[in-house]
Amino acid sequence: MTARRVARWLVVASAFLLALGVAFGGLAGEGSVVATVLILLLFLVYAGVGVLVASSRPRNPIGWIFLWVAVSTGLTTALTAVAERTEGGALERVDAWLEGWTWVPLVFGSTIFPLLLFPNGHVLSPRWRAFVWAGLIGTVALSASMAFDPSNYDGHVPIDVQPPAAALRAAEVASLLLLVGLVGAVVSPVLRFRRAVGEERQQMRWLAFGGVIAGVTIVGSFVTGAILDALGFDMNADGTAPTVVNTVVYLGVFAVPVTMGVALLRYRLYELDVVIKKAVVFAILVAALTAMGAGIGILVGLGVLPSVAGRPERMLLLGLAYGLLAGPIYRLSKRIADRVVFGGRTPPSEVVGGFTTQLAETYETEDVLPRIAAVLGEATRAREARVWVRVGRDFRDRARWPVDIAPLPSVPSADDEVPSLADADHVSAIRDRGELLGAISVSLPASDPIDATRERLVRDLASQAGLVLRNFRLIDELRSSRQRLVTAQDEERRRIERNIHDGAQQQLVALTVKARLAGQLAAKEPERAAAVLEELQRELAEALEDLRDLARGVYPPLLADRGLAAALSAQARRSPTPVDVNADGTGRFPPEVEATVYFSVLEALQNVGKYADATRAVVRLGEDGGALRFEVTDDGKGFDPNVPTNGTGLQGIADRLSALGGDVQVASEPGHGTTVRGRVPVTPGGIGAEPETAN
């Protein structure tokens, strides 16, 4: 039989016994409704939690301990009810005897051992087994001493069994070991919490939450009873007040097994901070109002204030005072709870909600990433928080919290994977529309390791930062592109200046000297003057050709006159590598489009001549899908596009095309040539297009 079936059959059997006991007790007219309800609640809590834990975690004894409590509750309830129906019989005597001591293993067994074994079903270390044995021996000894102590039964033990007096004294001494077990049960969860990390730490926080509720209700109930007694109310006049106090105490104690079950079943552990905050607010509010009541009770007892018992007008004034003070105390309780639970940082549940608002208040692009890092660091109580931006294949540390920590060097990454970033405790990728844009990382103190709540917070912030990081990267790339264009323009101006200075200018100076020489020789040596003039004419033709070549580098006249195909064909004839131009059917386009494609193709051909060692290259032009496309293919040695190079040719092509909304793709591998493909969107019906006719 499986553990699940055993657990279910135990619950069914105990439920049957409980129902039998309630039915017999009701028929006999014994017991109060409140007591019956509390017994039912006790059974439901321990049976429900026990069957769930025992079914899902059969190796964890905590579930079986809870089931034992449920079975014991059903059995004792049925026995008591049946015994009351058989007055004066042996069964009634046995029941009276059991009532005197069975509460000992029920109470201490359901508290000591679960606390020592929570949450994994094992003690902290082998040495802690001594506390388990101490609790077990102490429970048995106390049960034995209570069972055979005549003073516990109004001077006479209900059953005719009397162990030796020495044995009873030994049991009384051994029962002191129960205190050792209790101390271990209190200390063990504290030590576990300090050592726990991750999910186990969250489980221990659930136990602490249940303990706070139990402690607040127990202390608050008894203090309230004392306050009412001090105010002049008779607590035992009709038995109502003690019943209410006991009911509240029981309900508070039930919080411990319930929170244990929630922690063991690992249900929504990441929401615990919010739950604990509310509990702390409630506890502080109750404690403050209780302290006020205690103060009033003391003043009434000392005669400083008059009693309010039997005076409705005074009770009304006291109620108004409580009502007026409740609001400020509640607000103070929330601030204290935030400090206690979240350590002064922003509650995680509010971080993501306020993230967008904070970014909306950021006007400068440079402030976006530092704000993300600051929000991340403060919300997670991190030692360091960093925002990494993916640039090419590298992850770069672009923002940090605190701001005075040193930046880390770039980290290379594989395709679509986040690399290991320094010594971060947790890293979450930042993506937008499936594209990996960067990452955020946090490093926490060793005394406060990351838990499930903060892991979820980091992931949520990463998902929110995707669009922000894409916009930042676009702006950053735009600035870099502008800088490269300005640099390229300055370099082009310097190149033209050098060409004019070293070429055309020198030629014109030489022609001026020769023209002056020809003028001087014209009268003295006509034949030599004629030779100089002939040489001058030839050099003028060369200078004119050089100027035309220089002009073509700025903007070729052939491109403006005859279009892209003719201009590229003319340049192909000048290339040191044989080039075929395939531009069939390509018409005219706006000047800026033709110039962009023309210089991009020339840049690609220049790369072929410099680096490819190719025997042939092919240029293809075409219009497809509202875009002018070009392709430059060579049969050279190729290269690995993923390996960074020092050249700027391909980056220049990308910058030219992106200025008009286009893009470039490079396909190459060593030994198999290179293909550069570019695209520029164009408006239908551009320059040279046939006009549309009306129908």
Task: Sum up the structure in keywords.
elongated, 22 helices, disordered C terminus, 5-stranded antiparallel sheet
- Assess the beta-strand content as a share of residues: 5-15%
Mean pLDDT reading: 75
Structural class by sheet pairing and helices: alpha+beta
Strand order of the largest sheet: 3-2-1-5-4
Number of strands: 10
Shape: elongated
Q: What is the distance, rounded to the nearest whole angstrom, between the alpha carbons of the first and last residues?
A: 86 Å
Stretches where pLDDT is under 50 for at least 5 consecutive residues are: 267-272, 685-695
Into which percent range does the helicity of residues fall?
55-70%
Query: From the structure provided, what is the oligomeric state, counting identical versus distinct chains?
Result: single chain
**What characterizes the major β-sheet?**
5 strands, antiparallel
Describe the protein's architecture and organization.
- The protein has 695 residues and is an alpha+beta fold.
- The protein is built from 22 helices and ten strands.
- Strands 3-2-1-5-4 form a five-stranded antiparallel beta sheet.
- It is elongated.
Short description:
The protein has 22 helices and 10 strands.
How are the secondary structure elements laid out?
Blueprint: H1 3-28, H2 33-56, H3 61-85, H4 90-99, H5 103-109, H6 112-117, H7 129-147, H8 165-174, H9 177-195, H10 198-230, H11 240-253, H12 255-265, H13 272-301, H14 312-342, H15 348-360, H16 368-380, E1 384-391, E2 394-401, E3 411-412, E4 426-432, E5 435-443, H17 452-524, H18 526-554, H19 557-562, H20 564-574, E6 579-582, H21 591-612, E7 617-623, E8 627-634, H22 649-659, E9 663-668, E10 674-681
Parallel strand pairs: 6-7
Antiparallel strand pairs: 1-2, 1-5, 2-3, 4-5, 7-8, 8-10, 9-10
